[in-house]
Specification:
The complex is a heterodimer of chains A (about 425) and B (about 170). Chain A is an alpha+beta fold and about 425 residues long. Chain A has two domains: about 100 residues, Rieske Iron-sulfur Protein (3-layer Sandwich), CATH 2.102.10; about 260 residues, Naphthalene 1,2-dioxygenase Alpha Subunit, Chain A, domain 1. Chain A has eleven helices and 22 strands. Chain A is globular, with a radius of gyration of 23 Å. Chain B has about 170 residues and is α+β, with helices and mostly antiparallel strands. Chain B has one domain: Nuclear Transport Factor 2, Chain: A. Chain B has a seven-stranded mixed sheet. The longest helix of chain B is centred in the N-terminal third of the chain and has 18 residues. Chain B is globular and about 45 Å long. The chains are: A alpha+beta (about 425), B alpha+beta (about 170). Chains A and B meet through β14, α6, α9 and α10 of A and β3 and α3 of B. The structure holds FE2/S2 (inorganic) cluster and fe (ii) ion (FE2).
Chain lengths: ~425, ~170
C-alpha cells in the first residue's frame, strides 16, 4: 500500500502555491499513473509516421508499450505490444512494416488488425482451450485522431477526444490545420532521458515565457534576443479549456514576423484556411508555446539557428513521458506543412536542431534547470516550503479576446501554470474530473 | 572518386592520427576557439538520430534527421555561446575525455583524407555519474598548410534514445 498522500493539499491555486512533493514523491507518482495517465488521452503518433498499410511504430501510453499500426483496411489501430500467450514483446523495432506480426517466442501470429490468426501446433488444442477470437491483441481502450494526431486512452469513461480537446482545437487548428494539407512529421522523434519530474518540463511549456532572459541568458548575451528583457512580455496567456493552455507572443512589427514567420508563399493559403478570429491571432503573433493536458506540449517559434541565419520558424510537439518519480523520457517531433518547399524544410529543420532538442543552444539549458530543480526538491526539509506561482495573478482576463477560453493580457505570468496544476489536482482526486 | 588506402603506420597515417589526438586534447581542455580554428569554412558537422529496426530495414540511421546539423556559422555560434556567462549547460563546465581509436584511413583523388574512427567520450558534470557517448566518426580532413582542416564530420551514434539529459559537448 502506497504511503497515503493528501493530494488536494499539495496545490493551492488561489494562493499560487505548489508543494515541492509533487515533483519527487513516489506516492504522488503512483497516484498520477492511476488517476491521470491511465485515464487521460495521450498522444501516440502522427498519421504521417505510418502512411502505408502494415506500417507501425512502437510508442508508450501510461508507461506501457503500444503498437500503432496501419491496418490493411486503412484503419490505424493501437494495441498493447504484448503477445496474449506469455506476454512477449511482439514487435521489437521502433518502426517497420509487417504483413503479419509473428511472436518471437512460440510463434503465435496476429494480423495488423490485431486478430490472432494462427497458433503453433494448433492441432494440439481442443476447442475449449483455444478460442482465437478471444485472443486478439489487447486494444487501447479508446483511439481517435485529430488532424492526423493519433491519441489513445486507457479508460472508457473518459469523454471522447473531440470533447476532451474541446476549445483547444481552435488553437491547435492555427498550428496544425492552417493549410489544406495540414502538417506532417519531419523524421522520427528525437528521444532523450532527463532526471527530472515530467511536471517541470510541462510547467515550462504551460506559459513560462519569463524564463527566457535568465535560463537562456546566453542567447541574449549573443545578441539573439531583443535587448530589452520585457520585449517579449506582450501577448496573452490563454486557458483554452481546463488544463489545456498556451501563450501567444507578438514579434517585431514587420510582415516577416506575422503568422509566426511562416514562409510568404504559404500565407495566402493560410489566410484562406483559417477562420476570421484564428487569422487575427495568427497574423498578430510570432511565438506560441503550450500544452495539451497533461503532457503533450508544443512550440511554434521563430529563432536564429546561428548568428547569421534569419529568424526561422519551426513547429515541434513533444511528450514528457514520466518513467519514474524523478525521471522523464522526452519525445520531440518536428512538423512542417505538407505544402512546404524543400528550401523551407531544410531551413526549419536546421533552425530546430540548432536551438531545441538535447543539443539545441536553448534547450540544453532548460534540462539543466529541470534536473537541478528536481534534485533540490527531494529533501524533507525543502519539502516543508512551497514553491511560488504568483506572477500577474491580479490581471483580469480580456473580455474582447477573439478566441475561446480565457485570455489574460501579457505573456509573463503564472496564471496558466496554475490552470495546469488545478486540473492535475482534479484528475488525481476526483471520480469524474472531466465533469 | 578514387580512394587509396593509407597504410597503418605510414607518414600520412601518423600525421592524421596525431591531428585527431590533438583535436581531442583541445576539446578535453576546453580550448574551443582553438578547436574551431581547425574547421574548414564549408564544414558539415552532422549527427543523425538512429532507430532500432529489424536488419532487413538497414542500420536505422536517419539520413535527414539528427541531433546535430551544423555548419561553420552554427558551430561558431555554439563556441561563442560557451564563452558566455549564462550557458548553464556548461556553467560549471563538463569534464570530458575523448578516446579516439581504430583509425582506418583513405586518401581521395583531391588529396583529402577520409578517416573512420571509433570514439568513446565520457562526461561528468557536477557530482553526477558518468555519461557515456560511443559511436563512429567519419571525417574528411583537407590538407591545409602544414596541417589539416576538418571539412566533414558525420557522427554515427550508438544510442537510439540519448541516455544523457543534454548534448552540450562536441563529439
Ligand atoms: S509468448 Fe508469444 S507465442 Fe508464446
Ligand atoms: Fe526554455
Amino acid at each position: 500500500m502506497a504511503d497515503t498522500v493528501d493530494i488536494a493539499a499539495l496545490v493551492d491555486e488561489e494562493a499560487g502555491h505548489v508543494s515541492r512533493r509533487i515533483y519527487a514523491d513516489p506516492a504522488v507518482y503512483e497516484a498520477e499513473q492511476e488517476g491521470l495517465f491511465r485515464r487521460a488521452w495521450g498522444f501516440l503518433a502522427h498519421e504521417s509516421e505510418v502512411p502505408e498499410p502494415g506500417d507501425y511504430v512502437e510508442r508508450q501510453l501510461a508507461g506501457e508499450n503500444v503498437l500503432v499500426i496501419h491496418g490493411k483496411d486503412g484503419v490505424i489501430r493501437a494495441f498493447l505490444n504484448s503477445c496474449r500467450h506469455r506476454g512477449m514483446r511482439l514487435c521489437r523495432a521502433d518502426k517497420g512494416n509487417a504483413s503479419f506480426l509473428r511472436c518471437p517466442y512460440h510463434g503465435w501470429s496476429y494480423s495488423p488488425e490485431g486478430e490472432l490468426v494462427s497458433v503453433f501446433a494448433e492441432e494440439l488444442y481442443d476447442a475449449e482451450h483455444l478460442d482465437k477470437s478471444e485472443l486478439g491483441l489487447i486494444k487501447v481502450t479508446q483511439v481517435d485522431s485529430y488532424k492526423g494526431f493519433i491519441f489513445g486512452c486507457w479508460s472508457e469513461e473518459t469523454p471522447a477526444l473531440d470533447e476532451y480537446l474541446g476549445d483547444m482545437r481552435f488553437y491547435l487548428d492555427i498550428l496544425v490545420g492552417r493549410t489544406p494539407g495540414g502538417v506532417e512529421v519531419m523524421g522520427p522523434p528525437q528521444c532523450w532521458e532527463v532526471h527530472t519530474n515530467w511536471k517541470f518540463a510541462t510547467d515550462n511549456f504551460t506559459g513560462d515565457n519569463f524564463h527566457l532572459y535568465t535560463a537562456h541568458g546566453s542567447i541574449a548575451e549573443l545578441g539573439l534576443l531583443p535587448p530589452d528583457p520585457m520585449a517579449l512580455s506582450f501577448g496573452n496567456l490563454i486557458q483554452a479549456q481546463r488544463g489545456h493552455v498556451l501563450h501567444i507572443v507578438p514579434g517585431p512589427p514587420i510582415p516577416e514576423a506575422e503568422y509566426f514567420g511562416l514562409p510568404m508563399e504559404l500565407r495566402p493559403v493560410i489566410e484562406e484556411t483559417l477562420s476570421e478570429p484564428q487569422r487575427e491571432i495568427a497574423k498578430g503573433h510570432a511565438f506560441s508555446v503550450g500544452t495539451v493536458f497533461p503532457n503533450l506540449s508544443f512550440m511554434q517559434v521563430m529563432v536564429q539557428g546561428d548568428l547569421r541565419s534569419p529568424p526561422t520558424p519551426f513547429l515541434s510537439f513533444r511528450i514528457w513521458q514520466p518513467t519514474g518519480p524523478t525521471t522523464t523520457k522526452v519525445w520531440s517531433w518536428l512538423f512542417v506543412e505538407k505544402e512546404a518547399s524543400e528550401e523551407y524544410r531544410k531551413a526549419t529543420y536546421e533552425a530546430y536542431v540548432r536551438t531545441f532538442g538535447p543539443s539545441g543552444i536553448f534547450e540544453q539549458d532548460d534540462m539543466e534547470n529541470w534536473e537541478e530543480c528536481t534534485r533540490m526538491n527531494k529533501g524533507a526539509i525543502a519539502q516543508r516550503y512551497n514553491l511560488h506561482h504568483g506572477m500577474a495573478l491580479q490581471v483580469p482576463p480580456d473580455p474582447d479576446f477573439p478566441g475561446p477560453g480565457k485570455a489574460w493580457p501579457g505573456s509573463y505570468g503564472e496564471r496558466t501554470q496554475l490552470c495546469f496544476y488545478g486540473e492535475w489536482k482534479r484528475w488525481l482526486t476526483q471520480e469524474e474530473p472531466w465533469a | 572518386m578514387s580512394m587509396q588506402p593509407v597504410p597503418v603506420g605510414s607518414a600520412d597515417y601518423n600525421a592524421v592520427l596525431e591531428w585527431l589526438y590533438r583535436e581531442a586534447a583541445l576539446l578535453d581542455s576546453g580550448e574551443f576557439e582553438a578547436w574551431f580554428a581547425l574547421l574548414a569554412p564549408d564544414i558539415a558537422y552532422e549527427m543523425p538520430t538512429r532507430q532500432s529496426v529489424y536488419q532487413k530495414d538497414g542500420d536505422g540511421y536517419q539520413e535527414d534527421f539528427g541531433f546535430y546539423a551544423e555548419n561553420h556559422s552554427s558551430l561558431e555560434t555554439r563556441v561563442k555561446r560557451l564563452g558566455t556567462e549564462q550557458a548553464w549547460a556548461e556553467q560549471p563546465g563538463s569534464r570530458t575525455r575523448h578516446f579516439v581509436s581504430n583509425l582506418l584511413l583513405q586518401k581521395d583523388g583531391e588529396g583529402a583524407f577520409h578517416a573512420t574512427t571509433s570514439f568513446m567520450v565520457t562526461r561528468i558534470r557536477s557530482d553526477l555519474p558518468y555519461d557515456l557517448f560511443t559511436g563512429e566518426r567519419r571525417d574528411v580532413l583537407r590538407p591545409d598548410g602544414g596541417g589539416y582542416l576538418l571539412a566533414r564530420r558525420t557522427i554515427l551514434f550508438d544510442q537510439t534514445v540519448l541516455k544523457s539529459y543534454n548534448l552540450s559537448i562536441f563529439l
